[in-house]
Design brief:
The complex is a heterodimer. Helix content of chain A is 22%, strand content 18%. In chain A, a hairpin with a 4-residue loop joins strand 2 and strand 3. Chain A starts with a helix and ends in a 10-residue tail after the last helix. In chain B, a hairpin with a 2-residue loop joins strand 1 and strand 2. The longest helix of chain B is centred in the N-terminal third of the chain and has 34 residues. In chain B, 41% of the residues are buried. Classes of the chains: A alpha+beta, B mainly alpha.
């Protein structure tokens, strides 16, 4: 008899506590700052150009070879009449998100803190119909930080 | 011949049609709402959300299901008995629908006020066992047949305590003029204006509630429809509209027996202050009385869902033993005690004392049964020796 009463009390307890379901696509819970989605490039707002100098450090360190980096002379360098202190700057940059394994090594080797892991929901919800659409080029990689939508976090 | 409905005089056939339409419409809507509510409540008990996709909070789930069932093919197995198979859903559905006629919702708000309302309700509602057996027999499927036999055994066994528990209340109803006993549901409710009968007859209420669960084939008495044992019971072979008629019948029966329990034991629309409010303001009174009935019925239905979310299914032998060895003798004892009190004109408190003592006895019996170690049939010793030899 006591068992029956306790069982009823238990189920009533679960009834009162309410559902634990997370309605994921409708409601996004905040995700932690150190969440690690795919890498993207950061924008230097002081000189209005990317931090990245195209030094190939990340490309060489990448264990899955998902990056392609091309460097060029910076047309905005002070010697050419510009305001930037960067002699070289990134020309083209591709990251194949389909191949990236989100190991964070590119962020760790970067000498200029120019690359960071996306820590927003938009870094996770990037499913596409064609695998080729997952190869991001330079404007796409820069766009999110340029728009101020990234709370950047680089490992100290 | 003219009938009267809502104060308008109309032709008696139109009157009957209007009452029928009211009952059928109410029943269908109520059953769909109950299916939705059950899914939501059970989900909440299991810390889920239940249906959320169809409409706000999934409220259109039941209409969507109903549409889907209407659109499905109405299959009949090749070997099934066409007449019995096709008619079975009606035998489940129609009696329950007929019972609605006598149920009181508020003062004077019955489809028909019957002098022998309780008798009528009990007599008509037990017909639906025939429908279950027809479904099982007509399907020509051994699981359906097993389920139907279980349904028949269970339905008949629990019908008796159910009826006797209600009779126990019907005999102590005190009418004006020092008359005891009434089968008129309206009168039974009216007399509970001050104290509902659950106070005088707690044992009868508990017996009624348990027997109600069994009559409705709800957990823990859902052996006729147990999926793991008889793959859905008598309606394995049904699909589409006929299958949905079984479910409509089942949920309406749940609503109906809860209404009956609310009316007979919990004071229906009369307790508390049902009549006082009606004297102050007629419209407000009717609304208040409807609210009381709905709240009590809703509470009973909620407890049914609650029990379903808690209890495992009983075994067949436990089920039969509980009905014949426990509930039936106790309900007889209840009417015997009531009879003695009435014949000798003892005070009503004795009703409460006798019934309370019976309730304690029931609790003790259940407690002993739960604690007793399970008896399992042993294997024949010869087989065991044979195994050892090889």
């Amino acid at each position: 008899m006591r068992g029956i009463v306790r069982a009823m009390a238990t189920t009533l307890g679960t009834f009162v506590r309410g559902p634990v379901t997370r309605e994921y696509p409708e409601r996004h819970r905040p995700i932690p700052q150190r969440d690690r989605a795919f890498p993207l490039l950061l924008w230097d707002f002081d000189t209005d150009e990317p931090f990245c100098t195209g030094c190939h450090a990340c490309e060489r360190a990448c264990p899955v070879e998902c990056m392609t980096v091309l460097m060029k002379d910076n047309p905005a360098h002070t010697s050419l009449g510009g305001t930037s202190k960067r002699r070289k700057i990134i020309d083209k940059f591709w990251i194949d998100y389909a191949r990236c394994m989100r190991c964070n090594i590119c962020v760790e080797v970067c000498n200029f803190d120019a690359i960071a892991m996306n820590n927003t929901w938009s870094g996770h919800e990037i499913s596409v119909y064609d695998r080729a659409d997952l190869v991001m080029d330079l404007p796409q990689l820069l766009a999110q930080h340029k728009a101020g939508a990234i709370d950047e976090w680089v490992a100290p | 011949m003219n009938g009267e409905i809502f104060g308008f005089e109309i032709n008696i056939w139109l009157d009957a049609l209007a009452r029928l339409g009211l009952a059928v419409g109410l029943m269908t809507v109520a059953a769909m709402a109950l299916i939705y509510l059950e899914r939501k409540v059970i989900a909440r008990f299991q810390q889920r959300l239940g249906p959320t996709r169809t409409g706000p909070a999934g409220i259109l789930q039941s209409p969507a299901d109903a549409l889907k069932l209407l659109g499905k093919e109405d299959l009949r197995p090749k070997n099934a008995d066409p007449w019995v198979f096709e008619l079975a859903p009606y035998f489940v559905f129609v009696p329950i629908f007929l019972v609605f006629v006598a149920i009181p919702f508020a003062f004077g708000w019955q489809i028909r006020i019957l002098e022998l309302g309780l008798l009528y309700v009990l007599a008509v509602s037990s017909i639906n066992i025939v429908g279950w057996v027809m479904a099982g027999w007509g399907s020509d499927n051994r699981y359906a047949m097993l389920g139907a036999l279980r349904a028949a055994a269970q339905g008949i066994s629990y019908e008796l305590p159910l009826v006797i528990a209600l009779v126990a209340v019907a005999m102590v109803v005190s009418l004006p003029g020092d008359v005891r006993g009434s089968l008129n549901l309206g009168e039974i409710v009216t007399e509970q204006g001050h104290i509902p009968y659950i106070v005088w007859q707690p044992l009868a209420f508990v017996i009624f509630y348990v027997a109600m669960l069994a009559e409705l084939n709800r957990t823990p008495f859902d052996i006729p429809v147990g999926e793991s044992e008889v793959v859905g019971g008598p309606f394995v072979e049904y699909s589409g509209i006929r299958w949905s008629m079984f479910f409509l019948g089942e949920y309406t029966a749940l609503l109906l027996l809860s209404l009956l329990g609310a009316a007979v034991f919990l004071g229906g629309w009369a307790w508390p202050l049902g009549e006082t409010v009606a004297e102050q303001n007629e419209i407000l009174g009717v609304l208040y009385q409807f609210g009381l009935t709905a709240a009590k019925t809703g509470f009973l239905i909620f407890t049914v869902f609650w029990v379903r979310a808690t209890m495992p299914r009983m075994r067949v032998d436990q089920l039969m033993a509980f009905s014949w060895k426990v509930l039936l003798p106790l309900s007889f004892a209840q009417i015997l005690a009531n009879g003695l009190v009435l014949v000798y004109g003892w005070p009503d408190v004795l009703l409460l004392l006798a019934s309370g003592a019976g309730l304690v006895l029931l609790a003790v019996i259940i407690d002993r049964a739960v604690k007793r170690p399970a008896e399992r049939p042993g294997r024949p010793s010869g087989a065991l020796e044979g195994e050892a030899a090889t």
